Amino acid sequence: MAAVLRASRCLVGRSCRHVDYALVSTRSMASKTQVGFIGLGNMGNPMAKNLLKHGYPVIATDVFPESCKEVQELGAQIVDNPAEVADKADRIITMLPSSPNVIDVYTGPNGILKKVKKGSLLIDSSTIDPAVSKEMAAAAEKMGAVFMDAPVSGGVGAASSGKLTFMVGGAEEEFTAAKELLSCMGANVVYCGQVGTGQAAKICNNMLLAIGMIGTSETMNLGIRLGLDPKLLAKILNMSSGRCWSSDTYNPVPGVMEGVPSGNNYQGGFGTQLMAKDLGLAQNTATNTKTPVPLGSLAHQMYRMMCARGYANKDFSSVFQFLREEEGQ
Question: Which residues does the annotation mark as catalytic?
Fold first, then answer.
């Protein structure tokens, strides 16, 4: 009820707004009603499964019908396109590869906004240009819906275990409604500010992640060339000041850790092509804000080079393999 009152007070002061926030907040308090999910790739699939595990009926779609099979077997209803999802659900989560995909899914001929209900809550967990998030929010508002950006960190492992971190941008009075759903898929749900700030946080995180993964790969490769056992070197790094996520949770050297892409020929995980895309977003925003990011720029160049050398579909930790091949090993 407090959320409804807060939203109502907000509307009194902003009568020009098209969105009925009270409607969204009231609906979110209802029992577990249908949730739409669009994009069932490496990340979206386990995220949708976690919604199902928490008792939410899921209505889903994906451009590749075969991607829908697993969630359908777990009880999800599959429809043909995003517009049909919007026709059946007033809370929708999207998890898509890039800005053009998001634009098409929301505003295309069979997009969400063709049949979106007034008061619907639209949460986009894709990693895209913050400017596109703002455009989608404005388009949703014209239809009486609420759009929030909520990109994630943690990778496929965290998506499967429900331990993702969500960085949320949008109307603060709708954060509670969004958190109700996102908490089923993540251990951390952080409000960052208005629409686009979630994307800003994610872009910054992924730039650091790429730089850290390259640094870990270079360090491990150098240690191996100096005669150190890779498992021993990783152990030392992880009890020393060089410790980082890429060394202790997602080590890029085959055989050092189990359950990570480096132990599976760099299959699965977070693709090199997607990392290159995210670094491109970071470069664009750095240019627009006149922010110097020399290491981010070098990381972007390296991942683009990897894509050109056949690594596009391998996990981004394959930068270790790329470095080894560059030196002729």
Answer: 202
pLDDT at 3 exceeding the cut of 50: no
Asked if 69 and 92 count as a contact pair (C-beta separation under 8 A), the reply is no
The owner of tokens 């829908």 is 68
For residues 55 and 181, is the Cβ–Cβ distance under 8 A?
no
Q: Which domains does the chain have, with CATH numbers?
A: 35-194 (3.40.50.720), 201-324 (1.10.1040.10)
Which residue type occupies 40? L
Query: Cα dist. 236→85, 220, 224, 241, 242 in Å?
Result: 50, 11, 13, 9, 9
Three-state secondary structure of 80-121: CCHHHHHHHCCEEEECCCCHHHHHHHHHCCCCHHHCCCCCCE
> What pLDDT, in 10s, does the model give residues 209-268?
999 999 999 999 999 999 999 999 999 999 999 999 999 999 999 999 999 999 999 998
With beta carbons less than 8 A apart as the criterion, state whether 3 and 30 touch: no
Q: pTM for this one? A: 0.84
- Are 313 and 273 in contact, with CB atoms under 8 Å apart? yes
For residue 280, with 0-12 CB atoms within 10 Å meaning exposed, 13-18 middle and 19 or more buried, which class applies? middle
As given in the structure block, the two tokens for residue 245 are 């996520």
